[in-house]
Amino acid sequence: MAKRKRYKRIPIIRPKKYCRFKKSGIKYIDYKNPDFLMPFINEQGKLLPRRITGTSLKFQRKIAVAVKRCRHIALLPYVADQMK
Amino acid sequence: MEKTNYESVVVLTPVLSEKMLQEAVSDFEKLITENGGELIHKENWGLTKMAYPIQKKTTGFYQIYEFAAEADTEIVDKLELAFRRDEQVLRYLTIKLDKHALKYNERRRNGEFNKPKVKEAPAVADKVAPAAPVKAAPVAEAQVEKVSNEEAE
Lengths: 84, 153
What we know:
heterodimer, A: mainly alpha, CATH 4.10.640.10, B: Alpha-Beta Plaits, 4-stranded antiparallel sheet
């Protein structure tokens, strides 16, 4: 009986994610600039998780606060169908 | 006593006439200075489109005040009470500024961010499209752009 061949799993090589705030030295996230916050929210206006954007925890918290402030002053929607 | 820096954003109704708007803006300004606050900067965005309607209005006048005050005065309470009582105010937000925010605001006031802001917009557009699946290349590109911006300053 021929043994079933076992294939080795080929690892997918992805470039390492990094925190763009740490890299470019941004220390304050402006809540009055919705364009800047755009990469961190999805089409419905929801916050994107850290595992997708690669942001460090420190700045993810700051983004969350900034987005919420931005929503409050009506520069970003709380709910949207198609933002982009 | 150390002074604390605050920033207030006020959204006023679009139905105001030019004169009434000026009046309301200067009223709040007076309120800040009379209660021991020191007005550092004020900014008027004019009629701006809002992301969602508030009280069936889709636009609003945005007015931003940055001021410093002693930490234990009741200036913020008084100011927010005035905002709440005023029917022309659709939304308000008062926040405390930390040291990074102060630096940022100063640079923004000096117009240093006008250039990066313009350049950031296309970078944002790049990043938006391939958000989830293919991320590495466009983000990296955008990042390089951003970094060079920072250096250019």
